[in-house]
TrEMBL record:
Organismal lineage: Bacteria, Bacillati, Actinomycetota, Actinomycetes, Sporichthyales
This protein's name: Isoprenyl transferase
Pfam families registered for this protein in UniProt: Prenyltransf
Domain of life: Bacteria
SUPFAM superfamilies: Undecaprenyl diphosphate synthase (SSF64005)
Assembly mode: Homodimer.
């Protein structure tokens, strides 16, 4: 075994031992960024980068299980990504379908698609719906797979659903305007019924949310990691948890 591997193992164990188990986030969101740049650095295809990134997801979920994270949201494809050329988008959708099917076969994880499924190809939408149906009775981590997801689109869809619900009840527009509040909209988000994310991790060195969980992340702690997603290691994850635990969370300020 190489000396670097030995040192890595020692450092990882120290990080695990130093974690404050009383301050583990319930819900972790991850922006899996950098697959394409990783592939370019490797001199390989974009599809190879996406496959390498997809292979990292099971590792992440395993690390989350070890520390009792309850919900993980993975941003796999944005609404903006749907505008990419078919030569890049079609292989990416196929990788996402394979990945979600693999996650659903794990045995404990509950898959929950979040995104505008109506914008996706019919086959991709069906794969996501089947994964959710097949895993709905499980008791493990809730894995939100954000595909065709955009934060602004989510809020618009929530408002539309709210309006449709009250129209069916015969609520007048004036009565709805007088009664609607933050909780009414939250009840119609893709993540309705789930805790808001405590921690969002973004890889690749980019320091922005890009609309990820736009509504839900009002009080979320953010952690930006320099590593491209395929290179994201357990020590990177543990560092994010350590940084989260060290912060004094201030809700509303």
């Amino acid at each position: 075994m190489a000396l670097s591997d030995v040192l890595y193992g020692v450092y990882e164990r120290r990080l695990v031992a130093s974690l404050d188990r009383t301050r583990i986030p319930r819900h972790v969101g991850v922006i899996l960024d950098g697959n394409r740049r990783w592939a370019a650095d490797q001199g390989s295809s974009t599809a190879h980068g996406h496959r390498a990134g997809a292979a990292k997801i099971e590792d992440l979920l395993g690390w989350c299980e070890e520390v009792d994270v309850e919900v993980v949201t993975l941003w796999l494809l944005s609404t903006d990504n749907l505008e990419r050329p078919a030569g890049e988008l079609d292989p990416l959708l196929a990788i996402i379908e394979e990945t979600v099917t693999g996650l659903a076969s794990h045995g404990t994880w509950r898959i929950h698609p979040v995104g505008a499924l109506d914008l996706l190809p019919a086959h991709t939408a069906e794969v996501l719906k089947k994964a959710e149906s097949d895993t709905s009775t499980r008791s493990g981590i809730i894995v939100n797979v954000a595909v065709g997801y955009g934060g602004r689109r989510e809020v618009v869809d929530a408002v539309r659903a709210l309006l449709a619900e009250h129209a069916a009840r015969g609520t007048t527009l004036d009565d709805l305007a007088a009664a609607v509040d933050v909780e009414h909209i939250a009840e119609h988000l893709y993540t309705a019924g789930q805790p808001d994310p405590d921690l969002v991790i973004r890889t690749s060195g980019e320091q922005r949310l890009s609309g990820f969980l736009l509504w839900q992340s009002a009080h979320t702690e953010l952690y930006f990691c320099e590593a491209y997603w395929p290179d994201f290691r357990k020590v990177d994850f543990l560092r994010a948890l350590r940084a989260y635990a060290a912060r004094g969370r201030r809700f509303g300020s």
